[in-house]
Specification:
alpha/beta, 7-stranded parallel sheet
């Protein structure tokens, strides 16, 4: 089968969207050919059977020109070869623009979307899709028969444990965009409580980028909060990581902390779990996948610095063997529910089903 893909950004070096390189390569192992129409093209590291066309985001073209380029590229691509399906990764505007044309040609359409916000564009893309695939039951708010839960598609070969020397101090870490919704102030207040109780043998490493003006204001607020509590020597913001840098850096954490309280199982959290790092979360979605014992140890109350402090101290007090066993259990969850290999297989099977004219058939996803 040949696959058409609509993608927001195809760039192996991008700190958040670089993950789609792995997705495309995994799909490229199953499909004979893949053509990608992307909003923005950067460094490509793709299989030979994958070609990429950009509407010009990397060249700074106007919105109107991007739309014109999209229709031009779609026409050329559809004229060049037959496609057995179109898969959209978050680029829901492309689904809205191209969906009617693909529907007239009888090309099945599957859209990936994992976000708490359903805006009018996404709703239109939902209506124009034969199926919507998402990471977890909490990752997509519209409940319908054509919504399929596939897992997050974590590259468990890349995100695996790396050898590391013992840390001089306990390392508390996180990776992700520095934005207000992520709740980093809860962690800063938690480590302040640790210091007030005499625990000082640790450091906090918060890797991530800022993208908007509000992100920059929030980062300044976090700096001010650290100064207020005298935490400048404990809390550091080293900046964003490239995708290939994450496994080695996260392997150096003694605990990974994520304060995001909304949505499903976040990608950064699952990557840390795949790397076998004890991971503290406050997202309700994890109550469904953790054992009762691990749930008590790893899930803290959202926005509660005191509870987060207790959970961090609990991990600090575990011996190395128990901490490693916990990490292995977390990786098993990712391997079973969220692997990239499993995701690509489910997408391929779903397109196979749709092409057989059995779109109403219930798939075991």
């Amino acid at each position: 089968m040949n696959l058409l893909v609509f993608n927001i950004r195809t760039d192996a070096d991008h700190p958040t969207q670089g993950v789609t390189t792995g997705w495309l390569n995994a799909l490229g192992e199953r499909f004979e050919h893949i053509s990608v129409i992307t909003m923005h093209k950067g460094r490509l590291a793709l299989r030979k059977n994958i070609e990429v066309y950009s509407v010009g985001g990397e060249r700074g073209v106007s919105r109107a020109m991007k739309v014109l380029n999209f229709y031009r590229l779609l026409r050329q691509t559809l004229k060049k070869r037959h496609f057995d399906g179109c898969f959209t990764h978050m680029a829901v505007l492309f689904t809205l623009l191209g969906g009617p044309i693909l529907a007239l040609k009888g090309i099945p359409r599957i859209t990936w979307y994992a976000h708490s916000v359903i805006n009018p564009v996404m709703f239109g893309a939902f209506m124009l899709s034969d199926a919507v695939v998402t990471a977890s039951p909490d990752s997509f708010r519209i409940k319908a028969g054509k919504v399929k839960v596939t897992g997050h598609g974590i590259d468990t070969a890349l995100y695996s444990r790396r050898p590391r020397a013992p840390n001089e101090v306990f390392v508390i870490g996180s990776v992700g965009r520095i934005s207000r919704i992520k709740g980093y102030e809860t962690l800063i207040k938690a480590v302040h409580l640790m210091i007030m109780e005499g625990c000082r043998d640790f450091k906090v490493m918060l890797y991530g980028n800022v993208q908007t003006e509000d992100d920059r204001k929030y980062r300044q607020e976090l700096d001010d909060l650290c100064k207020t509590y005298g935490l400048q020597s404990f809390v550091r913001f080293p900046g964003p990581l490239k995708r290939e840098e994450v496994p080695a850096i996260v392997s150096g954490f003694d605990v990974f902390v994520n304060m995001l309280s909304r949505g499903g199982a976040g990608k950064a959290v699952l990557e840390a779990m795949s790397i076998e790092v004890p991971t503290l979360v406050c997202t309700p979605a994890f109550n469904q996948v953790l054992s009762p014992e691990d749930r008590l140890r790893l899930v803290f109350r959202a926005g509660d610095p005191g509870d987060l402090k207790e959970k961090i101290v609990g991990i600090m007090q575990m011996d190395n063997e128990k901490r490693e066993m916990l990490g292995r259990r977390l990786r098993e969850i990712v391997l079973k529910e969220h692997s990239l290999n499993g995701l690509s297989a489910k997408i391929y099977d779903l397109f196979t089903c749709l092409n057989r004219g059995r779109s109403g058939t219930r798939l075991n996803l």
